Amino acid sequence: MKVKSRQLMWWLAIGGAAASSFAASLVWAQSDSGSDPVAEYRAMFGDDNPAALWVMRGQGLWQEVRGPKHVALATTCDLGMGKGIIKGAYAHLPRYFADTRKVQDLDTRLLTCMVKGQGLDQAEILKNRFGDGDRKSDIEALAAYIVDASQGVPINLPMQHPEEKRAYELGKAIFFYRAGTHDFSCASCHGQSGKRIRLQSLPDLATAGKDARDTYTTWPAYRVSQGEVRTMEWRIGDCFRQQRLPELKYGSEAAIDLTMFLAKNAEGGKMAAPGLKR
Amino acid sequence: MHSLIRLVILLAAVPVVSGAAVHATQPDRNAQALSVMKTSFQAKGQAGMDRLNQDKTQALCSLHAPAAPPAEPTAKVVAANLASIKLPADGKFLGDWKRGQAIAEEGTGEQYSDDPAKPSGGNCYACHELDKQQIAYGTIGPSLYRYGKNRGSSEPILKLTWDMLYDMKGYAVCTAMPRFGSKGILTEQQIKDVMALLFDPDSPVNK
């Protein structure tokens, strides 16, 4: 990912607090005028994506020798392509991992590498799973770095192991599962193309196709309204909140099954993340 | 009411398939989804784990989705939804359109991030165009612009609209529209106020 150095300097200079108040002003502008904060962002900064800062920090974390076991992820972490290999890794996730005997997405696989591989404290990592201003998330930074190394790689899931097929089927069942005070399922809002809620357009994520590809290939993404890079775990959790369900546990089976369903529907799409979102 | 007509056609045209036969040929994916979801969620704020359990309407509309559900169990579910509708105690359908507009604009309510002490919104603009001032409207539902002006406000029209706001799933069983009355999202007074938004000649909906 390329960033013009002038903008990078600007982003480094303003730091967390200024960045989040900038983001807050965009949210305010959006609700006030109904305009598009991503368009406003582009008008101010061009096509530069602040996610570049997360990519840089993630690269540092990937290469650094860390934790009680004194190892670097770059030499020990297997994201499915072999130890330390990140090119294309995101485009083939979620997948079954023999060592954990689980289907894992990027977030949970990184957690395995940091906790089992480096000996870092899981609770400590999870406390900052979603970065907020000065409290940055290691997982979000690593995710930005790793997904960046899949730019242009078409999504193609292994889908050989019975657990992978099971995850897909369960993901589909959960996608269409209506519940809660409002009777919503994911399909209530993402079951047709060309619809919108207020002014936010709603991609059709229920079927394989352009909407599903354009959406899945642009996550993880920098959210202008939050001033943070978010992963699919965050996106799905926040949609369950809008669905009026209880809180989705980070790294839970439902999160991974749904990601499997969304990824499968996006197969063939070329990765273009980290993306830039509202 | 087009949805009702559609439902009647559906009931007439589709041969009766028994619920039991459906269950015998495919595993219940709702039960499978629920067992995974029970281990994947935690209660937060006003959203308890009981919200994961489906009622009959939710189960029916999930089991076959995106396909429409079979006719016979659908007819029973529709009848139960219609039976749950309560008419206003004082017989008056219309409240205050200005309060109704605020309810239609309000998007919060029932999420774990919402204050349970505050009344829920109807969030009608999320899915419907209602007037020409608010351009930030969604398109999941049909436009309601000039709803009252185009239909008039005879007793049967008022009653049908009340019913639909109270429980749309008595009319279009798998619609995206929430059951504002049956599910207790809006109070009787709030539904009256939203009714006034749709029917009052001074409401921006009818301008």
Note the main attributes of this structure:
heterodimer; A: 278 residues; mainly alpha; Cytochrome Bc1 Complex, Chain D, domain 2; 2 domains; 3-stranded mixed β-sheet; two-stranded antiparallel sheet; 10 strands; globular; B: 207 residues; 1% strand; disordered N terminus
Characterize this entry briefly:
The complex is a heterodimer of chains A (278) and B (207). Chain A is mainly alpha-helical. In chain A, 48% of the residues lie in helices and 10% in strands.
Class of the largest domain in chain A, according to the CATH hierarchy?
Answer: Mainly Alpha
- Tell me the CATH superfamily of the largest domain in chain B: Cytochrome c-like domain
Per DSSP, what share of the residues of chain B sits in E-state strands of 2 or more residues?
under 5%
Rg of chain A computed from alpha carbons, rounded to a whole number of angstroms: 18 Å
Sheet with the most strands: spatial strand order of chain A: 8-7-10
CATH overall fold name of the largest domain in chain A: Cytochrome Bc1 Complex, Chain D, domain 2
**Roughly what fraction of the amino acids of chain A lie in strands?**
5-15%
Count of distinct structural domains of chain A: 2
SSE series of chain A: HHHEEHEEHHHHHEEHEEHEHE
The residue ranges of chain B in which pLDDT falls below 50 over 5 or more consecutive positions are 1-24
Give a count of the beta strands of chain B, DSSP E runs of length 2 or more.
1
